[in-house]
Specification:
alpha+beta, two-stranded antiparallel sheet
Length: 113
């Protein structure tokens, strides 16, 4: 992981992580528990996390049949979360905080259907 972290910092790479770890097949408006790997990486590299929330209404995606229909997919980019000064002991709180912000945004996006 240290080699990857060094490349992220030295080459100013961007990393896209899906913290749920898998597709949420039975999506009922709630995010799955987040995995902490991406949050550890951000903390170790001292780089910000930019949460991106994607909402697909049931009219766009039928998760039971895995079929896409017509409609709009909503995407919201949230304010960056700074990790400067955080330690590995802060990762659980960081993970929970980001998940809560993303869930709140998802709840708001789904109400505007």
């Amino acid at each position: 992981m240290n080699v990857i972290n060094e490349r992220i910092k030295s080459e100013r790479l961007r990393v896209c992580v899906f913290p749920e770890g898998t597709r949420n097949k039975a999506f009922e408006g709630k995010l799955l528990p987040f995995k902490k790997g991406g949050f550890h990486m951000a903390q170790q590299c001292q780089v910000p996390i930019v949460p991106v929330v994607i909402y697909m209404p049931p009219t766009v995606y039928d998760s039971k049949r895995w079929v896409f229909g017509r409609g709009a997919i909503k995407v919201r980019v949230l304010e960056p979360v700074q990790t400067t000064g955080l330690t590995s002991g802060d990762v659980t709180e960081l993970t929970n905080s980001v998940q809560q912000r993303m869930q709140e945004a998802l709840d708001e996006m789904s109400k505007r259907e």
